[in-house]
Specification:
The chain has 416 residues and is mainly α. 74% of the residues lie in helices and 1% in strands. It has two domains: 195 residues, Growth Hormone, Chain: A (Up-down Bundle), CATH 1.20.1250.20; 182 residues, MFS general substrate transporter like domains (Growth Hormone, Chain: A), CATH 1.20.1250.20.
Length: 416
């Protein structure tokens, strides 16, 4: 099967092309554009792309040894990738409303493949950090694909479609560290990035052939496009609320995962780093909530679903207070991951109801707020653990959850 035909609106009926309406798929509810194979491909693509951001985390000691740099300098590999990703969220993801998304995704992946190859060949820290920053920058393609999938879905299936794509994304985050660690042990850290570069090239080719080539949703100029994000925040209460929910949820998530290694390394556990790393696998529980969240939205249970996930997040901190017992600690981690990931999917699926023309811009607004919440949570974890130990961390988590519940109580109408 060759690449899908381009939509041409320059001749004939301007609302029709080859017998098809050129109205955005999400507006006309045309399920032909989001077949099961295409949805599966987009979910896998999200997982493969987002994994590039996290490959470096378990490789830092080997990077330091091979390049003869300090652990602190090696740690900048994570920072460089995250800063690149944040820059992409701000300045590249909005382009999904301005240019054809298939073209944008393929271009980003092409640049990413070169950057990954540069990482694998890096002779020193300067090239390594610069290339990883580009990897992070271009990995924002994942946040072009998520609203792309939402735009291709009819409204009554949008929640399930977003949930499926987010399942792929979360699995990519979850498995990336394990894959990179195992592959590096077998063939060295450079092989991780060589394999990643090849995978991205193959993915770019497949996506170029399989993604529909839809016209841009907006004809604005780029500066006006960026300014319009501020306008959306000012005029769309739904977007502001969902950003608040997302920021509070990710703050709880970062609070936990920044503080818990300190807890597990000290008494009464005294776990080595290798064992502490295995606790990340508990995050697989969050994947279970992605489809649930999508279905709750499709059935119109947005308010009920929001309360469910906010309650899971808040209640998890009550369980986590039992710091000296491993079973309650694991249960608390599972509950928190279920709540955070379920709320995240529900938020994203909900904001895509604002309109197909602004999907990429609302994604940028939401994700910037989401990561700002995560940054706050990480900083809060360091401060609270240093001054009051695990008890203060849990108290902070309860407060974050309580703020979310107050937000829900004051939100009487989530139907605009």
């Amino acid at each position: 099967m060759g690449p899908p035909p381009k939509v041409n609106t320059t001749s004939g009926d301007p609302g029709r092309t080859n017998g098809r309406s050129t109205t955005a798929p999400a507006e006309r509810g045309d399920p032909r554009y989001i077949t099961t194979p295409l949805l599966a491909l987009m979910a896998v693509a999200c997982g493969v792309i987002v994994a590039d951001i996290y490959y470096s985390q378990p490789l830092l000691p080997e990077l330091a040894r091979d390049l003869r740099i300090s652990d602190a300098t090696a740690g900048l590999a994570v920072t460089a990738t995250q800063l690149g990703f944040a820059t992409g969220l701000l300045f590249l993801v909005p382009l999904g409303d301005l240019v054809a998304r298939r073209r944008l995704v393929v271009l980003l992946l092409t640049v990413s493949a070169f950057a990954l190859a540069a990482v694998s060949l890096a002779p020193g820290p300067t090239v390594l950090l610069a290339a990883l920053a580009v990897v992070g920058l271009t990995s924002c393609a994942v946040n072009v694909l998520v609203p792309f999938a939402a735009a291709l879905a009819p409204p009554e299936r949008r929640g399930r479609v977003v949930g499926t794509v987010m399942t792929g994304l979360l699995l990519g985050v979850l498995l990336s560290r394990t894959v990179s660690g195992q592959l590096a042990e077998l063939a060295g850290w450079r092989t991780v990035y060589r394999v990643a570069a090849v995978a991205i090239v193959l993915l770019a080719v497949v996506l170029h052939r399989r993604l529909p080539d839809l016209p841009p949703a907006d004809q604005s100029r780029y500066p006006a496009l960026l300014r319009s994000i501020v306008g959306l925040l000012r005029t769309t209460p739904l977007l502001r609320r969902r950003i608040a929910y997302g920021a509070l949820g990710f703050a709880s998530f970062s609070l936990l995962w920044t503080a818990v290694p300190f807890l597990l390394a000290g008494p009464p556990y005294h776990y080595p780093t290798s064992v502490i790393g295995l606790f990340g696998l508990v995050g697989a529980a969050g994947v279970l909530c992605t489809q649930v969240a999508g279905r709750l939205l499709d059935r119109g249970w947005v308010r009920q679903g929001t309360l469910l996930f906010v309650a899971l997040i808040t209640g998890s901190w009550a369980v986590l207070t039992a710091e000296v017992h491993l079973v309650p600690l694991l249960i608390g981690i599972v509950l928190l991951d279920l709540g955070v990931q379920g709320l995240h999917v529900l938020n994203q699926a909900r904001i895509y109801s604002i309109g197909a023309r602004v999907h990429s811009r609302v994604t940028t607004a939401y994700m910037v707020g989401y990561f700002a919440g995560g940054t706050f949570g990480s900083g809060l974890a360091i401060v609270t653990y240093q001054h009051g130990g695990w008890a203060w961390v849990c108290l902070s988590g309860v407060v974050l959850g309580a703020v979310s519940i107050v937000l829900w109580l004051t939100d009487r109408n989530d139907k605009e």
